[in-house]
């Protein structure tokens, strides 16, 4: 109890909003309830009293660990969309930030918006306040907001940020589907097989022991696997978790290893083309968006390289920036990387010659967005019969091997 009171006082002193659940009666004597954000119980009671509500119960809302304490990409997209709507309606920036903060039930996002509001009220521009949070706000967001502030078109730039992030998140979701769907199915097949080996096969083994006859080779092999699984399952599980942990740690600490992993993904027979087309689409879309906002091409390329999602493309775009600084054309610098498709290079060349680079880049992004979606749908369709074969082989192999002795016994009778 003392710790709870201490935490409430510390939250109140820091000015951080807390979510409270309240119950009470309105002016007509009706029972009402709801949730409200405030820095203390006194603050909530004061706000409700000003609305003519007599509070009968007020408790601090508890949340599970990790729930609402992490800002997701979709939260930033929603924040940009709501800010665009408020500013377009003529609401001042500070009031818009306050309204959006009060309208969210995610503590981390609310704290982020309140921090931005505090920085803006202390004299920072909106773009500078956002740039102070590189973990959640990328360079594209900052560049577009800065351009919107200079051009007096902040609402339009916020809408453009939200639209661009929605498209990129949608594309990222398709790539994840292509990567995770086969892995998830194989994992389920392995888990079901392990369950059969550990729980079901031992029941058959005790029954076979009473036969006193030699078992078929497939049955003996399955029983041997079952014995190994019962003895070693926890070692295998720990080894798998350790391998995943150390692999992720090595990829995070070793840029060279992470680069080789990105190159390996591009060379995979079915997944590689999907990742390649997705990287080109994200690069083209981001470059078109930043270039159209008046961001210099060199800065736009730096931003576009960071959102490709692949280190091979990121390093290649850095080489493109270096070549542009020596006077080369964009399409020629992109051609020397050997990563971009002929269609993308041709469209960029046409855009440079005609002065319509933004339009051509958007067409490239639209084309490869559609191609990624088509490839992922095709991959999913082709994977379904393969999945049936894999699951049937794993599960059916165990089941058939267990029933072979029964079939032999029936034929002998």
TrEMBL record:
Biological process per Gene Ontology, one example term: protein secretion by the type II secretion system
Task: Please provide one cellular component term from the Gene Ontology annotations of this protein.
Answer: plasma membrane
**Highest taxon of the lineage:** Bacteria
- Where does the UniProt annotation locate this protein? Cell inner membrane
Q: Spell out the Gene3D superfamilies in the cross-references.
A: Type II secretion system (T2SS), domain F (1.20.81.30)
Please give the InterPro entries that the UniProt record associates with this protein: GspF/PilC, T2SS_GspF/T4SS_PilC_CS, T2SS_GspF_dom, T2SS_GspF_sf
UniProt keywords (A-Z) are: Cell inner membrane, Cell membrane, Membrane, Transmembrane, Transmembrane helix, Transport
What name does this protein carry? Answer: Type II secretion system protein F
Underlying gene? epsF
